[in-house]
Amino acid sequence: MDISGGIQASLAGRYALALFELARDEKKLDEVSASLAALKRAIDESDDFRTLVTSPLIGRNESAQSVAAIVETMKLDPLTRNFTGVLARNRRLSQIGNIVRAFNSLAARHRGEITAEVTSAHPLDGKQVDAIKQNLRTRMGRDIAVETTVDPAILGGLVVKIGSQMIDGSIRTKLNSLAQAMKG
């Protein structure tokens, strides 16, 4: 069954599809998903790590060695460790966020879930994410995998994207609508 769904069209999508197929064939989808989530979280939380993976000024060998040491101390699964090494050698570490997003989409589709991208102004805790999942599950009638991002520019509320649908409950959008209404 082909579940790539057009993901192959992008560079990150091709890498994600290759990793997904390896993880699926080795029955390590859950381990790789957890490792990728930890890796993305580490990049998001550390300015130094983010600079290491995105800066074109850091040489290929230095980047590969540094990332190998970091993922070893993070105790990521072997498949993800090898994969990050390939990304470092090919100068594709800057694509890790897009790769993780595409991988999660493939894994969710494999499990029969649909993926919702939820953007909030502040990080959501586990209870909030569970409540969103439950609400979306009721609304969509299917299991939902939630991928969260933080964007302080929305000021408050949530922006939820499921496929081509978007539910924009952000304060920024409400303020913009109010401003347009006041202009007449």
Q: Which helices and strands occur, and which strands form pairs?
A:
Layout: H1 11-25, H2 29-45, H3 47-54, H4 60-73, H5 78-89, H6 96-110, E1 114-120, H7 126-140, E2 144-150, E3 158-162, E4 165-168, H8 171-183
Parallel strand pairs: 1-2
Antiparallel strand pairs: 1-3, 3-4
Helix pairs in contact: 1-6, 2-3, 2-6, 4-5
Order of helices and strands: HHHHHHEHEEEH
The largest sheet has its strands arranged as 2-1-3-4
Q: Biggest β-sheet: count, sense, barrel?
A: 4 strands, mixed
Task: Based on Cα principal axes, name the global outline.
Answer: globular
Strand fraction band? 5-15%
Output the CATH class name of the largest domain: Mainly Alpha
Terminal CA distance reads: 53 Å
Average pLDDT for all residues = 88
Could you name the ranges where pLDDT drops below 50 across 5 or more consecutive residues?
none
CATH topology of the largest domain: Peroxidase, domain 1
Task: State the total count of DSSP E strands.
Answer: 4
Work out the count of structural domains: 2
CA-atom Rg in angstroms: 18 Å
Task: Name the structural class.
Answer: alpha+beta
CATH superfamily of the largest domain: N-terminal domain of the delta subunit of the F1F0-ATP synthase
Number of DSSP helical runs? 8
CATH architecture of the largest domain: Orthogonal Bundle
